[in-house]
Amino acid sequence: MAEDTDKATSMKIGNIEIKNSAALAPMAGVADCAFRELCSFFGASYTVTEMVSSKGIHYSSKRSAELMELSERERPAGIQIFGSEPETMAEAARFALQFEPDFIDINMGCPAPKISGNGAGASLMKNPKLCGEIVKAVTSAVEIPVTVKMRKGWDDNSVNCVEVAKIAEANGASAVVIHGRTRQQYYKPPVDWDIIRDVKCAVSIPVIGNGDVTSGKRAKQLYEHTGCDMIMVGRGALGRPWLFREINEYMRTGTVPREPDQEEKLSIMVRQIERMCSLKGEYLGIRQGRKHIVWYIKGFKGASSLRNQAGHISSFEELIKFKQKILDKSAGC
Ligand SMILES: Cc1cc2nc3c(=O)[nH]c(=O)nc-3n(C[C@H](O)[C@H](O)[C@H](O)COP(=O)(O)O)c2cc1C
């Protein structure tokens, strides 16, 4: 038991010391710098940027450069790149170094047609030889560690993450992240934790298990079920960045810390969106923040009407009024 807990509270990706029990998953359009910083504050063991196109980097897209900006408050942090050409991926990894990531992560899991339809993301898993060439090109291009995030396989007839993980290891990857679903499943149940255990048994590099962790208890179950070295949490942390504190505490002590009350949740939400506004400007910060507001107010009294109101918030001032209105209502004003 003590051994399990130790394993879950420290591991290494290459030479980088990783502390705590759960990493924040890369999530395009959601896990921006403001959210990643907040998750780190609550104890995420590391963070990864939204995926960045290697072609976008090649063509010097401004958007790609913005996505790679890292803050000191979110370290250790990786930059995730996607693409299907070994040389372009290597070039992107080299370019990313100017943002001083702690490691580079290669995306082999994105199911979206605009990515996987172009031979990148999860569709790479249909071509294990190319997977190996990409990992080799990237690990040869940079001196920092390289990780690979993949799915279980393309579909139920081609479950090959064990093979692809071995190929990644043989070509120099420092760790693999396994999301226990096929590309065909997208995000639908069930998630397959057995396959994560199979990968753990097949490679010597650290294995990070991913899929459907939403509580400290589920985190511990994933560790125990798979023997994995770290777990990664995505959707479970949306509107609940304090989930990392819960997981860390549950892994350490077996107890669940008190959930923030409504006022605390709203303050955390405002803090996140204020940071989004300072990083992206108020116009974008508020518009992109709306979906986060909806996640934060989940379960609040009158949530459906609040959701509707959240969709119309168009300034930081209105956000503060929105928060106050909820608090006044719950105080019976
Ligand atoms: C909105 C959204 C965006 C995502 N974007 C990425 C991405 O950019 N790169 C990536 O490797 N995975 C991405 N994923 C997949 C997550 O990293 C993670 O593997 C998946 O959500 C399963 O973990 P969970 O059950 O904890 O959410 C995304 C998932 C969601 C829900």
Task: Provide structural commentary.
The chain has 333 residues and is of the alpha/beta class. It folds into two domains: 2-253, TIM Barrel, CATH 3.20.20; 262-330, Non-ribosomal Peptide Synthetase Peptidyl Carrier Protein, Chain A. Helix content is 47%, strand content 15%. The chain has helices at residues 2-9, 33-41, 54-58, 62-67, 86-96, 113-116, 128-141, 161-170, 194-202, 216-226, 243-253, 262-280, 282-296, 303-310, 316-330; strands spanning 10-13, 16-19, 22-24, 47-48, 52-53, 77-82, 103-108, 146-153, 175-182, 207-210, 230-233. The strands form two sheets. Strands 3, 4, 5, 6, 7, 8, 9, 10 and 11 form a nine-stranded parallel β-sheet that branches. Strand 1 (10-13) and strand 2 form a beta hairpin. Helix 12 (262-280) packs antiparallel against helix 13 (282-296), helix 12 (262-280) runs antiparallel to helix 15 (316-330) and helix 13 (282-296) runs antiparallel to helix 14 (303-310). The chain is globular. The protein binds flavin mononucleotide. Flavin mononucleotide binds at residues 25-30, 50-51, 80, 107, 109-110, 149, 179, 210-213, 233-236.
